[in-house]
Design a protein that fits this description.
Layout: H1 4-14, H2 22-26, E1 38-40, H3 41-48, H4 52-60, E2 67-69, E3 72-76, H5 77-91, H6 96-104, H7 111-154
Antiparallel strand pairs: 1-3, 2-3
GO molecular function, one term: DNA binding
Protein name: MerR family DNA-binding transcriptional regulator
Organism: Plantimonas leprariae
């Protein structure tokens, strides 16, 4: 069986980026983090294809809460899972605030089930938003193609 970490990075790089594949972020592929309980900032940055600055930004926004040992940030399994969910939200077009709202539901009473219910509802809504954006982009591309064709035909007469 191929290494899931390598597979998601190769797939993402083939798509022109370095973000993990959605299957990895969803946990469909192995995401056990090598069974560790503590991760250094560089470990998570490498695993998820993000910069150290991104992780520090997420920390500043309250999305991650690493422990400190001197100047070293030590991330827990909880932080790693939250990072995975933040990146999933980002991949699906949610803002960090929206992603955080869905993630934070987990800590409420009956949170695990409620989190899935809310995610299903919000994902369906976001899908409609993205389809609307796609229609707008398609219309813009059609207008662009028409304009390019017109200008190519017009150019020789100028």
């Amino acid at each position: 069986m191929p290494n899931a970490k390598v597979a998601y990075l190769e797939e993402a790089e083939n798509e022109g980026g370095s973000q993990p594949a959605v299957e990895y972020l969803l946990g469909i592929e192995t995401v056990d983090g090598d069974g560790k309980d503590v991760y250094r900032i560089g470990d998570l940055a490498k695993e998820f294809g993000v910069t150290l600055r991104t992780l520090r930004f997420y920390e500043d926004r309250g999305l991650l809460s690493p422990q400190r040992r001197g100047t070293t940030r030590l991330y827990s399994r909880r932080d790693r899972k939250r990072l995975r969910l933040v990146l999933l939200g980002k991949a699906l077009g949610f803002s960090l605030t929206e992603a955080r709202q869905m993630i934070d539901i987990y800590s409420q009473p009956n949170g695990k089930r409620r989190q899935v219910e809310v995610a299903l509802e919000r994902f369906a809504q976001q899908r409609e938003v993205l389809l609307g954006q796609r229609r707008e982009v398609d219309r813009s591309l059609e207008a662009m193609d028409l304009s390019i064709d017109f200008l190519r035909k017009y150019l020789p007469s100028v």
